[in-house]
Amino acid sequence: MPGTPARRPTGRDVAQLAGVSQATVSLVFSGGAAGHRVSDATRQRVLDAARSLGYRPQAAGRQLRLGRSGMALLAVPNLQGPFFGRVLTGVEEEAARHGLAVVVSSGWNAATLAEAATTSRFDGLLICSPDDSQLGELPPSTPAVLLDADPAAAGGAPTVELDLAAGMAAAVAHLTALGHRRIGRLRSSLSAHTFRVRQAAFERAAAGLEVLEYQVELNLGESAARIVATELLSRPDRPHAVLCDDDVVASGLYQAAADLGLRIPADVSVIGIDNVSIAALLTPPLTTVDLPGEQLGRTGIAALAALLSGEQPKPVAPLPTTLLVRASTTGA
């Protein structure tokens, strides 16, 4: 009849369209498909059928039946950090395959992370690039996967790491191959594991070189980096190559160089880390170490889904990093 609301699609409708049982539909949307040997092809067929029908599982009902919310929390240090946008892209792509919705937030400490997991607000936590202090109070029973974090501080939780040491070594080797022997270094002042690894790798790779090092507060963005970079580039013995702890810092150095009338790379070669979108848009495009953020997110949420299904995720080798040589570096 005209004016009669359309019937809301049900799990039975999805099962019929996908050619599977209602139990299979429930497993897919509860995140339990992997533990019950539902193939990837079948799971994707269910998700495609649900999408075409506009089906959305009843979150409240599912929580009552399974004691779960169907939601995962992605905790990042800084929502404005562009690298974490890459991580979120990968998390969301993979989460849909496991019937999970993702909430992202920053500024969480150990107590609030633990509270989020133990009050059924979230089924599990995905914690990216944490400061060690954020992990100290997490109960051992909390379903959590750590990304770009110190395995020694993880308390037994699964971790997914990046091969930061290889990326940093490749960056330093590129500069030395170009003849640079005095290198500027704009490093993060943050104490997170990811920056400790970068610094240790840099010190190993740069042994025997002259290094002019300055610290930058990354959370303050390119404006803070611009101020520090201006100080570095104004020195009478300024370096002709600078390695930055991320691409946002490198963009601040670009601004500082322009302020001082210096050309990149003719007067100063620049390398960043992360390979966020801004890196290719700078003039000239920035040489940078690509950290596979999307793969980091996908691998992490897949491990969390396995945990929620009662499985122990298999250990993952550090994800490879790649030096992308663009036009911001040249010979000394």
From TrEMBL:
PROSITE patterns the UniProt entry points to:
HTH_LACI_2 (PS50932)
SUPFAM superfamilies assigned? lambda repressor-like DNA-binding domains (SSF47413), Periplasmic binding protein-like I (SSF53822)
Enumerate the GO terms in the molecular function aspect.
Answer: DNA-binding transcription factor activity; transcription cis-regulatory region binding
Identify the residues that the record assigns to the HTH lacI-type domain, covering every copy. 9-66
Q: Which SMART domains match?
A: HTH_LACI (SM00354)
Keywords, comma-separated and alphabetical: DNA-binding, Transcription, Transcription regulation
Is Nucleotidyltransferase found in the keyword set? no
Domain of life, per the record?
Bacteria
Protein's UniProt name: LacI family transcriptional regulator
Q: What is the lineage of its organism?
A: Bacteria, Bacillati, Actinomycetota, Actinomycetes, Kitasatosporales
